[in-house]
Amino acid sequence: MEPKFYRGWHLAKSDMEYKATEFEWALIRFYESFSRFVLTTGMITIAADVDIKYQEHVILHVIRMQDRPKNSATIARLMNRDDIPNIQYSLRKLESAGLIEKLKDKNSKTYSYTASELGVKLTDEYNKVRQEILVKRFEEISDVDEKFERCARFMSLLTGIYEEAARDSATITPQTDEPPPKPKSSRKTG
User: Fold this and answer.
1) Cα within 13 Å of Cα(139), Cβ side
2) Where is this region: Disordered (predicted)?
3) Residue 104 and residue 111: Cα distance in Å, rounded?
4) What would the pLDDT profile of 138-167 be if each residue is shown by its tens digit?
């Protein structure tokens, strides 16, 4: 696309920057539609008196992954999150809703979590609804298996690149118009 047709992105000064920015914009829209799908489908399958948000839904499914207990650090790692206090808050919500159970780890002060009988029932129901209203639509896409596989590998690669860029940006000193403060001398003159 010619630069004159760009959306006016302040982030795009070249064709590659434009395509990267369009990808990021698509990713934002995808995240929002995915979270909306998770929430609306979750509302169908989870009792009306249980108030859990998108993050709790995702954490519940992560706990079900491979049907083995997971602690908060493992859940955070699997989700590429570093906000363990927020994850622990979500775990308390899921536990009080009766969707997960807390298990004390052997020879440790930490706890792991597993889906309760109700949590298993509701995530299985979620999967049935998901298959019926979402997965069937995927099957209309030609070569969908290959596309998902390539896209998942590409997203994993980009995750690493963005992580490294985030680490690099954490070491940048913000630029200001003011000169940096002069170091104070620790020597006393007398």
Assistant:
1) 7
2) 168-190
3) 4
4) 999 999 999 999 999 999 999 999 999 999
d(CA 75, CA 86): 11
Q: Calculate mean pLDDT across residues 172-185.
A: 74
Evaluate whether 98 touches 148 at the Cβ level (below 8 Å): no
- Amino acid (one-letter) located at 89: Y
The burial of 152, by beta-carbon neighbours within 10 Å (0-12 exposed, 13-18 middle, 19 or more buried), is given as exposed
* Torsion sign (Cα): 37, 39, 40, 43: positive
Residue 84 near residue 72, CB atoms below 8 Å: yes
* Cα–Cα distance measured from residue 176 to residue 174, given in angstroms and rounded to the nearest whole number: 6
